[in-house]
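Support request, please re-run this one:
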Amino acid sequence: MPLIEPGQRAPAFTLNDQRGNARKLADFRGRALVMYFYPEDDTPLCTTEACQFRDAHAEIRSLGAEVVGISPDSSESHSAFAAKFSLPFTLLADVRATNGAPRVCDLYGVWREKNMYGKKVIGMVRTTYLIDGAGVVVRRWDGVKTPTHGAQVMRELESLAAGTRAANRQRPRH
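Re-run finished. Output below.
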């Protein structure tokens, strides 16, 4: 499936979190959502990315946003990963279907062909979506490079929050 473009509504889904609880995209409605897709728990680049979001978590929440990580790993793997690195946000398990493609990863266009060490393979392409409180994609980062990604997301969240505050100030009061 193709990537979801900014301006489009984020497709609805339900996945289990690291505690085994079913979580829906709609559960996050009303707040901005940083939804990042990553290949695998407890690997160097995935851990770096998760820890950037962990370290900025209080600031992210103060900007009116939540963070959700999604990978094809199981809820049990997510639970161990979250505990090991004190990750305070939700991790969702998008386990592979019988055809090998995780359903939500495929729905969001992040399960696709990529080049890995000179060989073409099908798998997770590290991607982050920023979804506004109404469920509309406002930004997408493709082929995420982890060393600078957290700072890029923070800048965008600050801009989104400033725009929201400005829009709220401009609304007429009744």
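Residues 14-170 form a domain with the Glutaredoxin fold (CATH 3.40.30.10). Confidence is low (pLDDT under 50) at residues 165-174.
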